[in-house]
Amino acid sequence: MLLRYTLFRSLHRCILAVLLLLVFARPGESQAQTAPDGPALPSVAAPAAPPADRSTVKPETDPPQAAVDSNAQAEAVPTDPRMARLLAYEDSLMVLGDSLVGARRYEDREAACVAFIPTLVKALKTPGSFDYPFDRVRSLSVVRSDDERFRVFTFQMMLWDRTYRYFGAIQFADEDLKLRPLIDGSLFMTDSMALTRQLDPDNWYGALYYGMTMRKYKGERYYFLLGFDGQDMFSSRKLVDVLHFDKEGRVHFGAPMLEVPEPTLTDAEFEMGLKPKERSGPAAFTHRFFLEYKTEASASLRYDPELELIVFDHLIPENPLSAGIRSTYVPDGTYEGFRWEKGEWRYVEKVFTQTQAAPPVYAPAQPKTDPGNYEQRRP
């Protein structure tokens, strides 16, 4: 009963914190936004490139030459009141973010989370905030769509049991703030639900997003988000999710556009000694892709713009006897991936196929500078 009460209290406080977004947002801001190119989403005739620094938030009038710090720190003094306001909010978010991530006591992290959300919303209400990067707030991840129509904020909080809850919001490009909060519902999702269902912002699979790439197919735009989920003390996840808009402009997460890499079995089937069967029918597709691995390991999942592939580590169990237990999986040095083909991300079993007939041989640059006698060991 005590554990159930504690869990209920934590979820109640976390959801309460997210609802602060609705309290501090202007009327109508939390309503469903219209998709890019739709009737209600504000058009962006010529989207600007992502700002190089905070000075790209344009003042209403050209400011005089900014003073330079006497200590030669090259930090310009803001003269535009909007810039000064954003800098002040960013300073507050930095302090709260440090407590949100680094505080030892759960109650302190929770208090920082409750204060962090309205502070961020107030900052975003500042005119010109869409071009402000908030890059000094290390606990806050900001990814921007390729077409400059919106950007996604995400951050995480570790609970008392070393699991994580995620918070987020979508800010649309507009002169007035248009914000759509994201409420993490992953705690109540089974793996089957997470893989096969389309979700909405009120029931979002929470993650800390660190990348985004866009694809167009049959006149629709699909935004593929790369994220991290701390999961628990035993395993972590990298993931690919799909953000898209329907005809009414509502936000949706997930679409069956990612080919399943390989046949999978449940834990019970592994315990029974069953082996994956070869796929005999058409390729299967999932709404989102998960790469789950041992917490102490480091696995990569990223979009490579040169290869135009989503590339990720191939994982194997540390011990063959632990096959199927994802908390024992680690990278083996090879890479798999997804290639975009006709509106789908098709699975690529091996991304890099180059091989060498012999390993590279070390040779000292100058004679008598070979302390390991490698030169003498050469055949």
What does this structure look like?
Strand 2 and strand 3 form a beta hairpin. This protein is 21% helix and 27% strand. The termini are far apart. The chain has one domain. Helix 1 runs parallel beside helix 3 and helix 2 packs antiparallel against helix 3. The N terminus is likely disordered. With 379 residues, it is of the alpha+beta class. The chain has six helices and 15 strands. The strands form four sheets. Strands 5, 6, 7, 8 and 11 form a five-stranded antiparallel sheet that branches. A four-stranded antiparallel sheet has the order 1-2-3-4, with helices on one face. Strands 12-13-14-15 form a four-stranded antiparallel sheet, with no helix packed on it. The longest helix is centred in the N-terminal third of the chain and has 23 residues.
- The coarse silhouette is globular
Output mean pLDDT.
79
Helix/strand-derived category reads alpha+beta
Biggest sheet overview: 5 strands, antiparallel
Question: What share of residues is helical?
Answer: 10-25%
